[in-house]
Amino acid sequence: MSGMSGKIQGISGPTVMVDLKGLKLYERVYVGNAMLTGEVVRIEQDRTVIQIYEDTRGLAVGEPVKGVGMPLTVRLGPGLLGGMFDGLQRPLERLKADMGPFITGGKEIYALDYMRRWEFTPLMKKGDTPSFGTIIGSVDEGAFKHYIMCGAEAGRTVARVVNGSDISLNEPLGEFEDGQEIPGCHEWPVRLARPYRRKFAPAEPLVTGQRSIDFLFPLARGGTAIIPGGFGTGKTILEQSVAKFADVDIVVYVGCGERGNEMADMIAEFGELQDPWSKRPLRERTVLVVNTSNMPVAAREASIYTAVTMAEYYRDMGYHVLFLADSLSRWAEALREISASLEEMPGEEGYPTYLASRLSGFMERAGVVETMNGKIGSLSMLLSVSPPGGDFTEPVTQACLRTTGVFLMLDTSLAHGRHFPAINWFQSYSLYGKDAAEHYHQKVDPDWAKLLQRCRQILQEEETLREVAEIVGAEGLQDTDRLLMHVAERLRNEVLQQNAYSEDAFSPPDKTIGMVKLILGFYDRAIELLKQGTNLDEVLKGR
Amino acid sequence: MRLSEHTYRTLSTVAGPLLFVENVFSARIGEAVIVNTPDGRELEAEVLEIDGNTVMVEVYGSTQGLDIERTSVVFTDAIKKVPLSSDIIGRIFNGSFVPKDGIPMFIPEKWKPITGAPMNPSARARPEDFIETGFSTIDGLNTLVRGQKLPVFSASGLPSKEVVGSILKNARLADSAKRFIVVFAALGLTFHEYSHYLKVLEEMKTGFVAFVNMADEPVMERILAPRFALTVAEYLAFEKGMDILVIITDMTNYCDALREISTAREELPGRRGYPGYMYSDLASLYERAGRVYGLEGSVTMLPVLTMPEDDITHPIPDLTGYITEGQIVLSRELNQKGIFPPIDVLPSLSRLMQKGIGEGRTRADHRKVSNHLYKYYAKGRDLRRLEAIVGRDGMTKADILMLDFADAFEKDFVGQGMARRTVFETLDAGLDLMKKFSLEVK
To answer: Is A494 exposed, middle or buried, given 0-12, 13-18 or 19+ CB atoms closer than 10 A?
Structure first.
């Protein structure tokens, strides 16, 4: 139905009613003289409702509307790494070059740079018949081999493939026998998960370099995790630390309805810092999608889909990809705003009733998979949640809890005591703990699980003792109990706390376990000394 | 597309601030509208919603005296814009941009849309230049930097206007050759507060621009005034290269105005009756703070809000805290102890502090001093709870020392009164205090 046009009938906030018939649900539409991008959200007998992704101010009734015949898509091809896009995948740096420091309205710029030259190595020859996802060849994108995969052209027989140098995305990589060109990039609808052959249960831990995560509540490759926390509890810093140090190939980071200055800071920092695993600049392995809180609300809703589709694309090349979103609550609020403007029946706290199913559908896009070309890739998710008033009973946190594998609860009182990362060690949990401990047991230290169990016990006992101490005073406790409280305090201050602004910001598993061993070793010796009758104050002095 | 004004006398409904006009040709969303009342007044209004040729218009002023028969509505085919010129410095306006100081309106150099445009995140420069406010609790422990938005969370009865007044008087850039221009937006102010701020502004050596909406003036102006202020601030900062400090007080009145208008529009209420889009709406103000890469000027924002019932989890402080880069929290307890400024450093936070301090910005030991002061004070405060249960006698010597330190910290370090301290004096005061209690600073 491409190329059909109609007129605007009515406008209400970000939604527009048009008289255009024959549009499909979720089809992409250009609206008004300014050619604003929109998406069909409801079709009725005599009118269609369109959700606009840009500021609608100035739009007039009677202006033209044009259907594209395709849903909202992203362009997938070499050149995404190191890029920074808005929620509709417009490259922000080229947008800036085009219209200056402020984003003033509708303008379509493709995410990929069609002029850039690439060195292409074919992995397919004349006579081959690629299916969907089969690798046609590769180009070098920074340190990565970017595999160019077959898209919708699958099933044809290759007649010619170019070899070697200096090819841009404007030129075909060859032809099929029926004359169809082999493109270097393709489009994919953002709301449709990219296919794979097989999915596996997440088993291998994803090393983040954050001690309290890796040791107490490990993430898994292909797993999901949420970080809910009130404001000032350090969600963003924790997400950014993980984005910097995680042991993955590619990082896709979405700033969804958050602060512009924070993103500026992150961009500057990612240009300066190195990936501790590959020693290459962090920027080279990162794709940023940014829709700050003052950018249009509907594009914020789309931004996480735009980003996750790019993440899936790199997963399909056989890479381990980490997807981070800050914050999912802002996405849910955008969904609520759109739902309200469509006058849908609200559910809990005004959120639409489909919030939970949308969320679980989205989070299921994570996983370890065998890709269409037989490689193994993973997509892991770490999502922050901003519960209003720090109240975890609110709908977004609760909906996430039903799907997530790891729950890292950030505690306001820990944050006020400047204990960062402020992960509460009693309330948080990880469903991947057992598999991760098994892995660390084999790869890092045979005592991993035992030490972990002991630490948990010490922290638990401290909590009990603290209640006693509040009544009788610290002086009134027995020496062994005071020693335990001392050890627990050291565990909290030295192991669980980690300053994101120091050299300690990244802690590999062997360092983590080394620190734990040091403290527990001291504990064992101190117990011995106490048994021999040494005074506790002497023991503590001699540590 | 029309290119001229159209006048209509086809009102079908008048309800509170909302008018419905029928048979309008090609109205624009957000279009500026002028309403001519039967008694000869001219009111400003804006197109809110369009359904076919029926248009819903929201009036900014009081709609008293409007009728269906004789009221006429002029559609201007333009969206609301703000007049701008360097001559604006030193002027005071009301919430509808009408001069309040008795001097005629300036001649605009240019006009810009009131809502501004979102700054491209890749064009933002990282805020990292230290601003000295003269208060130890801010400069030392919650440092403000150029381009930051740092709200003051106050509560009823606390001296927020004195705190803000002193910041206005004392704020200085590390680069002392530069001057601040203060853009002041007062929303729903009582005359008492207004006269206090007016005095401060007049005493200031630096220039200012003020937009004042008094407590008895139209609620809609409370939505407009901060946007006028920010459009002026962006103009002076990014086109004239000035450093601008925007003070908006009181954001609680802004949010209440937003709620009132949302209810009039019959929108679905969210938490405590505030509209569901309040986060995005607040962000459209707060996010206008910042610096642009390659440009001279900056917009730094210091909004003030009153926490209803002293509750920091109330939607207004809560949503604000989620958008701004930290918060300065005033404490009733410190105020009752007679400490000025009554800034409680524990819940206060400046997210951009790390980049603005240290060698070359303030002093090499800044981070160390601040971390230790914070840690010891937090410990002392924590022990006060214990003291209340077991009494001072049941505590260890080390614990008693921390208790005494916390008291001294509040009295000497926080409670500096009206005196201005440089950041060096602040750091030295902190070091001296820790030395006095023989606390180690590693």
So the answer is: middle
Q: pLDDT by residue (tens digit) across A88-135?
A: 999 999 999 988 899 887 677 889 999 899 999 999 999 999 999 999
Spell out which residues of chain A touch residue B352, defining contact as CB-CB under 8 Å: 261, 265
Distance CA A157, CA B254 (A): 65
Residue of B2, B4, B29 best to disrupt the A interface, most CBs of A under 10 A: B29
Instruction: List the CATH code of the domain at A111-186.
Output: 2.40.50.100
Distance CA A450, CA A456 (A): 10
The dotted CATH code for B6-79 is 2.40.10.170
CA nearest to B148 within chain A? A261
Which helix (H) or strand (E) segment is A93 a member of? helix A92-99
Report CB contact under 8 Å: B374, A389.
no
Query: Which of the four CATH numbers 3.30.450.20, 3.40.50.12240, 1.10.645.10, 3.40.50.300 does domain B82-356 have?
Result: 3.40.50.12240
List chain B residues with CB under 8 Å of A100. Answer: 120, 123
Nearest beta carbon to residue A58 from set B28, B314, B349: B28
Please check the confidence at residue B175 and state whether its pLDDT lies above 80. no
**What's the whole-model pTM score?**
0.92
Instruction: Read off the amino acid at residue B298.
Output: S
- Half-sphere exposure of B223 toward its Cβ, with a 13 Å CA cutoff? 19
Which of A11, A95, A267 has its CB closest to that of B50?
A11
- Count Cβ–Cβ pairs < 8 Å, chain A vs chain B: 213
B347-385: per-residue pLDDT in tens? Answer: 999 999 988 899 888 999 999 999 999 989 998 998 898
CATH 1.10.1140.10 fits A448-541, yes or no: yes
Q: CATH says A5-71 is which class?
A: mainly beta
Chain B touched by A486 (CB under 8 Å): no
Pick the CATH number of A198-431 from 1.10.1610.10, 3.40.50.300, 3.90.1150.10, 3.40.50.261: 3.40.50.300
Residues of B in contact with A388 (CB under 8 A): 271, 313, 315, 318-319
Cβ atoms of A114 and A318 within 8 Å: the answer is: no
Angle between helices A448-472 and A509-531 (to 10 degrees): 50
- Taking the CA atoms of residue B314, residue B275, residue A56 and residue A287 in that order, the dihedral angle to the nearest 10 degrees is 40
Residue A360: exposed, middle, or buried by beta-carbon count in 10 A (0-12, 13-18, 19+)? Answer: middle
Chain A's closest residue to B314, CA to CA, is: A389
